[in-house]
Amino acid sequence: MPTFSRKALLGISAAIAALTLAGAAPAKEVTIAHAKGQTLLEQAPKKVAVYDLATLDILNALGVDAVAGCPRG
User: Which helix (H) or strand (E) holds 49?
Assistant: First the structure.
């Protein structure tokens, strides 16, 4: 299994969540594989948190307005 940085994993997770929130994902359930295993999302998340401003910019560009919070500065 390839090794990803924490920032890369967060970006990938945010992109998948954004697609799910935007309704672009055709499946009702989405499984996200990550370093500690897998997470099954049975429905679109109502809120997401981001850990860096670049991910926030991506979500804003995709029209996702369900961001609950991000770090300061």
Answer: strand 48-49
pLDDT, tens digit, for every residue of 20-48?
555 554 557 888 888 888 988 888 778 88
Q: Are 67 and 24 in contact (CB under 8 A)?
A: no
The Cα 38–Cα 31 span in angstroms is 7
CA distance 72 to 61: 20
Query: Given the structure tokens 């961001």, which residue do they identify?
Result: 67
Q: What's at 16, amino acid-wise?
A: I
Contact 65, 48 (CB under 8 A): no
b/e per residue, 22-61, with b = 16+ CB within 10 A? eeebeeeebeeeeeeeeeebeebeeebebbeeebbebbee
